[in-house]
Amino acid sequence: RWCIDRGASGHQVWICAQSLYSVGGFPLYVASFGADAVSILRGFRAVDLPTGEKRWMVRLGGLSAALVYGIYSATLEACSVWCWSAFALATYAVVRRGPRHDEPTSEQLPPGRL
Length: 114
Prior knowledge:
Elements: E1 5-6, E2 12-13, H1 15-45, H2 51-72, H3 78-96
Antiparallel strand pairs: 1-2
């Protein structure tokens, strides 16, 4: 049973979800979402984006997590479903951020070095 299973809605049930549920039941499984949220919020502190844009991304991530966990937590599929929206937000942050202040831009590099 300790593998990636297919859930009742056809989404993956990850081993971490199965482990949390088997050790602490539904309360531990849902509490892990809180730990994930704290980790993500701390990560956003390091992202070089305007504050308003960070707030928009955190709200969108929180809303998507609340919806996904509300719909799929009973079948333990929430982790695998929500990871796609988290991945999309993280990709946006990496692509959108532009150069960090301590990284030279292409105009500041010597000729022939990119």
